[in-house]
Amino acid sequence: MIKIVVADDHEVVRTGYAALLDTQPDFTVAGTATDGAEAVRLCQEHRPDVVLMDVRMPNMDGIEATRRISGARVLILTTFDLDEYVYDALRAGASGFLLKDVTAERLFDAVRVIASGEALLAPTVTRRLIGEFARLRPQPRLRAFATLTPRETEVLRLVAEGLSNPEIAGRLVVTEETVKTHVSRMLGKLGLRDRTQAVVAAYESGLVVPRGGSG
Questions:
Q1: Considering the domain boundaries, does residue 131 fall inside one?
Q2: Residue 105 pLDDT more than 50?
Q3: Are 117 and 180 spatial neighbours (Cβ–Cβ below 8 Å)?
Q4: Which CATH number covers residue 104?
Q5: Domain assignment of residue 130, yes or no
Q6: What is the distance between the alpha carbons of residues 42 and 56, in angstroms, rounded to a whole number?
Q7: Across 63-122, where does the E strand assignment appear?
Q8: What would the mean pLDDT of 118-127 be, rounded to a whole number?
Q9: How many CA atoms lie within 13 A of 144 on its CB side?
């Protein structure tokens, strides 16, 4: 059973998502929140697997709430795909984002994907978003990147290009288990939560260069 918290300051949106999610036999909505602070409190209380988080809310926004939540995967809900708030939420540790006009089936699939431990959702749009804002606001190269082995750096580059573990295994002619080990070590060395943060870091550090106008 996938336990979910829904956070959105608009009542119609919040209750609509909760009712929709409750139609699925493998979902249970543990609670709903009207702002980020309430979302953090509910996560501490209910230990959900996934949080559907509106990025713009009063009192505490979705970015700060994402930063404070541990143990749950955060799925950002937004009206615009190229949104700097969404970029900041991904940097803060969100595992992906969806547009609010998403279909019910896409929402259900996204929750299941994110609960399973996968990260990037709608990878083309996500990489375009990351690439756009990383280009506008590049960060200095992380010192921790120097601790990566050449193979770990190569795996990070392929993760940033949107390849899955099986695809990376095929590209490098190694087992999927070996790829998982490289990904785990790479995340640990860089102090990152998941693959999404790894993609953001790869773009910001200059390891992967955004392609202008791609999407």
A1: no
A2: yes
A3: no
A4: 3.40.50.2300
A5: no
A6: 18
A7: 73-78, 96-99
A8: 61
A9: 12
